[in-house]
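User: My advisor asked me to double-check a structure prediction for ABC transporter permease before group meeting. I don't want to rely on an old file, so could you generate it fresh from this sequence?
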Amino acid sequence: MRGALSNPIIVKELRERFRSKRTFWTLALFLLIMGGIPLGFLIVNPIKADTLGQNKDLFVISAVIHYAMICFVAPALTAGAVSGERERQTLNVLLTTQLSPRTIIWSKLFTSLAFTSLLVIASMPLYSIVMLYGSVSPEQLLKLSLFFVVNILFLGSLGLFCSTLIKRTAVSTIIAYGVAFFFVVATGLIFYFLGEILIQLSPERALARDVWNLPQLQYLAGINPLLVLSAILEDGTLPAVRFDFTPWLFFSCVYLVLSMLLVSWSAYLLAPIKRRWRWSWKK
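Assistant: Sure, here is a fresh prediction for ABC transporter permease from the sequence you gave:
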């Protein structure tokens, strides 16, 4: 922690980001959306004694909106972290300092994720409204929080990688959202279409339901955030997959590895002098 506070990039960007009026209004708008929708739900469907401990709709709605806001905010905060320095012509100056490219990348990621984490932490008390309805265990809330943290780290790393790879901030932002769309939506569609095709090809209709439990489809479902979120919420709206492994744990391991790869690749791309790996049988 002391090393982070002595890092000039972290100190500078944290001061600039958290002292601006835009941060205040962004946080206020985020909390207004996150608190306004559950409040509207309570007005439309007031708490009744016979629904206590049974109704999970408010919990599912809050979690889905929370996740949608993370998908919208996390890539945008990092997609211009390096390309913005390049457009302001300050990146070369930054590379002449004693900070290594790896330190610069981690500093940019830390400051961007600090703000996204602030949004999530500030909105977590709103789940106390959800607890009024019951039917939500502390274990579910813990899994959901871990799920959000992993997604913030991955989407932030993805935006930072696009910002390092592409010179223009607008283009890097669009590509970051496109790749995020592939992981969030396209993998789920591939899972659904493959399952339906296998069901149509199945000669015995009685075995069609077992198609969703094939190991290959289970692994594909395990990397789709929406299916994993559905498994955490236990809402049963998406195709029921009986996982042979813990889905949120598998999802966390896969996306943490992807995040580390993206960060390492970003540091390699940012290095002014790149080490070339050559394989030769001659010594």
